Amino acid sequence: MFSKKLEYGYVILKLLKNTSEINKISGKDIIQKGNIPLNMGLSILSELSRGGLIKSLKGKNGGFYRDDSREITLFELFQVLENQGKQMKPFFNEEFRNDVVYIGAMVMQEMANIKI
What we know:
It is a single chain. This protein is mainly α. Helices cover about 50% and strands about 5% of the residues. The two termini are about 20 Å apart.
């Protein structure tokens, strides 16, 4: 149902749970532990950082961490990795537009309740 990108993003957020600026994890370790393809993993880490869901520190002792005082929802992850401000194109018959919009709204509402 979800894209590989969203699945990998979820894995990354789970791996970064209980990390901090002091207890950060390198991008290489995240990608290896999550069994994520290198280029995709680097891209997702960058998007998550730009989207404010994780923090990054550069340099020799750099790495990634997550502010666990802030709850992140599956919907926020979706917005950062999949939607990125783009308007989604309809892929359905206009006759069923209201039903599909309603179902989509219900899915998004449930995604907003799932904490990562």
